[in-house]
């Protein structure tokens, strides 16, 4: 497995990156692992996300293009 460790600006490991192909293999090998992805998310958080998705569909003119937003952020840094 080719894991990549993610560190913050102080060098402290904060996460692990698993390549998608290996993640797909893990989901097959360890039944139920995928269910854990959403089981730990509180219902209130799911409700907020769903409400925002619905709102973004209704007000599509106010939704920003991801690439344009990222370019704007990078220019402002």
Task: Summarize the helices and strands and which ones pair or pack.
Layout: E1 4-7, E2 13-17, H1 20-29, H2 35-39, H3 43-58, H4 66-76
Antiparallel strand pairs: 1-2
Task: Give an overview in words.
55% of the residues lie in helices and 12% in strands. It has helices spanning 20-29, 35-39, 43-58, 66-76; strands at residues 4-7, 13-17. The protein has a two-stranded antiparallel ribbon with strand order 1-2.
Share of helical residues: 40-55%
Overall shape: it is extended
- Could you list the spans in which at least 5 consecutive residues all have pLDDT below 50? none
Strand content: 5-15%
Structural class assignment: mainly alpha
Structure summary, number of beta strands: 2
Mean pLDDT over the residues: 86
How far apart lie the N and C ends? 35 Å
Number of domains: 1
**Biggest sheet overview:** 2 strands, antiparallel
What keyword list fits this structure?
Addiction module component CHP02574 family protein, 77 residues, two-stranded antiparallel sheet, mainly alpha
């Amino acid at each position: 497995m080719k894991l990549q460790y993610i560190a913050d600006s102080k060098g402290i490991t904060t996460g692990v990156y698993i390549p998608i192909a290996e993640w797909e293999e893990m989901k097959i090998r360890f039944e139920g692992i995928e269910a854990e992805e959403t089981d730990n998310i509180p219902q209130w958080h799911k409700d907020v996300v769903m409400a925002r998705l619905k709102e973004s569909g209704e007000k599509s003119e106010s939704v920003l293009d991801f690439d344009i937003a990222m370019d704007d952020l990078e220019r402002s840094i």
